[in-house]
Design brief:
Elements: E1 2-5, E2 20-23, E3 26-32, E4 35-36, E5 41-42, H1 47-64, E6 72-79, H2 85-93, E7 103-108, E8 118-125
Parallel strand pairs: 6-7
Antiparallel strand pairs: 1-2, 2-3, 3-8, 4-5, 6-8
Helix pairs in contact: 1-2
Length: 126
């Protein structure tokens, strides 16, 4: 049976979905964009700050499910401009141990929700 995971420490969904779904020991986290949950406003203007906010939103959801980034086995990063990959990667890398980092793909897309520059989703396992 699936368990819905939601926390006020991450942005509320902007559509008909939940922040995350836990099935047995596997957590599927919806894509997180750089919305500051305390204000409901987008973090804009600096791709590193945008990436950090997206990662902090993911962290809050992981914590709500009693997990951490060490439990993450797969991430998907969607970016609007592949020229920002190095800056995004620099911030993203601070959340993981290089020796145990998850599998990942990074894809450049035409647009993202609310026209942000980065969206990140994850799968974690206990």
């Amino acid at each position: 049976m699936k368990k819905i995971i939601n926390t006020p420490k991450a942005p509320a969904p902007i559509g008909p979905y939940n922040q995350a779904v836990l099935i047995k020991d596997t957590l599927y986290i919806s894509g997180q964009i750089p919305i500051d949950p305390s204000t409901g406003k987008l973090v804009e203007g600096d791709i590193q700050k945008e990436t950090k906010q997206s990662m902090e939103n993911l962290k809050a959801i992981l914590e709500e499910a009693d997990m951490s980034f060490e439990h993450v086995i797969k991430t998907s990063i969607f970016i609007k401009d592949m020229n920002q990959f190095a800056q995004i990667n620099e911030v993203y890398g601070t959340y993981f141990n290089a020796d145990t980092a998850p599998a990942r793909e990074t894809v450049e897309v035409a647009n993202l929700p609310k026209f942000v520059n980065v969206e990140i989703s994850m799968i974690a396992v206990r």
